[in-house]
Design brief:
With 440 residues, the protein is α/β, with parallel strands linked by helices. The protein contains eight helices and 26 strands. 19% of the residues lie in helices and 29% in strands. The radius of gyration is 31 Å and the shape is elongated. Bound molecules: adenosine monophosphate (AMP) and magnesium ion. The site of adenosine monophosphate (AMP) has 18 residues, from loops.
Length: 440
């Protein structure tokens, strides 16, 4: 396991006080371990889970050549180029009810979609292109079909032994269907990641508590819960923790003992008078970053272990035997929490879950207005995507972009990403947008 200092040393020009977003992402990707434990789940329970082993097809899908249409199966060598071909019908092949009789030259078989191609026949003429003669023979005009038309080949979906799905995939509805088509009842997936989180700050009150002067309700625990729930990890909510050394130390130890990753919000800003940063540094190997981004500049990152001196039998479950948990100390401002989660934590938790890294989905949209942007930092502005009359995607920024204004996030359906080197954007220029729809 590389130390944080090792990772920092391997990043050219690393500066914790002015870290570009891409470097922070790179750093985190080198830091996070992947879960090891694998469990086998029934197919339906595996939706959204991460596949732990490659799946190789144990059969050919489909198992036989079969018809793609309702019509008549025939030999392409019987087809006449210039005049109608006349075929007599030797029998019928149904899906699940093959025709096993002999088919002589000049004969064909009435065939249904999905039925196995009778031996020797290679082409299907769709029923609508044929006519029946009075003597029962089928008349096919010249040029209606070519050899091999409307026939699905054995193994064209998946050949025997062909890799069907790769480890690291987050299983989709289509994947479940694909696995079912291979006859797989169970699938190996990585165990679910456990993520503990809590909020820090003396001004925070939980829902249901009276709101004294100067206090705010803790909203971060709800946005964080929502984003974690979408990722499909196991969430452990440790509540609001007072800005008091013993309480913080207890919360970090408890979190590190029961979870693979710990997410906190608040208390990591430069001017913080509280104890959060000190306790983090005491209990773990932690870096305090100032990231070149807006919103969301301050962030703590590292590994956090059990409380110093804790023994396995002290009742907390913490102890030297426990591997350290990853720590993501997010800023307190409600918008900054979401932006840093999407920019850093989401990807890290997916990697920890065993998923092959997938960058955030980006689409390009026309900015409706000019945007001011200083090169040298990444900005995430909340935007509303819509489709203009000419069919082009456009985006406009929601009102105030203050990092405390959660409403801007709720109103938005995407985030405009203004990249590190980018400067001012003119109205009508294309910008990158992370659409929220479908984002996990
Ligand atoms: P901090 O990073 O702790 O300095 O917090 C920055 C701002 O975010 C302050 O105005 C806090 O009151 C606010 N804040 C911190 N944590 C939360 C939270 N869990 N829910 C809502 N607002 C918060
Ligand atoms: Mg605070």
């Amino acid at each position: 396991m590389p130390s944080l200092a090792d990772i920092a040393a391997s990043i050219p020009g690393y500066d914790a006080n002015l870290l570009p977003v891409a470097q922070a992402q790179d750093f985190i990707s080198r830091l996070v371990p992947r879960v090891q434990a694998v469990e086998r789940l029934a197919l339906r329970s595996a939706l959204g889970r991460v596949l732990a082993q490659d799946v190789v097809s144990p059969i050919a899908v489909p198992a036989h050549d079969n018809s793609a249409m309702d019509g008549y199966a025939l030999r392409s060598t019987d087809l006449l180029a210039d005049i109608d071909t006349l075929i007599s019908v030797a029998g019928t092949a149904f899906a699940g009810g093959p025709f096993s009789g002999q088919v002589l030259p000049g004969q064909g078989v009435r065939i249904m979609t999905g039925a196995v191609m009778p031996t020797g026949l290679d082409t299907v003429v769709p029923q609508e292109f044929t006519r029946s003669d009075a003597d029962g023979r089928i008349r096919i005009p010249p040029g209606t079909v070519r050899a091999g038309d409307n026939r699905r080949l054995a193994g064209e979906d998946l050949a025997l032994g062909e890799p069907a799905l790769q480890a690291g995939r987050i299983l989709t509805p289509a994947d479940l269907g694909l696995l079912a088509s291979l006859g797989q009842a169970e699938v190996p997936v990585f165990r679910r990641l456990r993520v503990a989180f809590f909020s820090t700050g003396d001004e925070l009150r939980s829902i249901g508590e009276p709101l004294e002067a100067g206090c705010v309700y803790d909203s971060n625990r709800y946005t964080i819960w929502g984003m974690l729930a979408r990722l499909g990890v196991e969430v452990i909510d440790l509540g609001v923790v007072r800005d008091e050394p013993a309480a913080l130390s207890q919360a970090f130890s408890q979190a590190a003992a029961c979870a693979d990753a710990v997410i906190t919000s608040g208390g990591v800003s430069v001017g913080e008078a509280d104890h959060t940063k000190r306790i983090m540094a005491e209990l773990g190997e932690v870096l305090f970053w100032k990231i070149a981004m807006r919103p969301g500049r301050p962030m703590a990152i590292g590994r956090i272990g059990a409380r110093t001196g804790a023994r396995p039998d002290d009742g907390t479950g913490a102890g030297p035997g426990n591997p350290p948990a990853m720590l993501f100390g997010l800023p307190g401002n409600p918008v900054a929490v979401m932006v840093t989660f999407y920019a850093f934590v989401r990807q890290a938790l997916l990697a920890m879950s065993g998923a092959t890294p997938q960058p955030l989905p980006l689409l390009r949209a026309v900015s409706e207005a000019a945007l001011r942007k200083k090169p040298g930092r990444t900005e995430y502005q909340r935007g509303i995507l819509s489709v203009a009359a000419d069919g082009r995607q456009t985006v406009r920024i929601t009102g105030s972009q203050g990092s405390g204004i959660l409403r801007s996030m709720s109103e938005a359906n995407g985030m405009v990403v203004l990249h590190h080197g980018q400067g001012d954007v003119a109205a009508g220029e294309l910008v990158d947008v992370i659409p929220f729809d479908g984002l996990i």
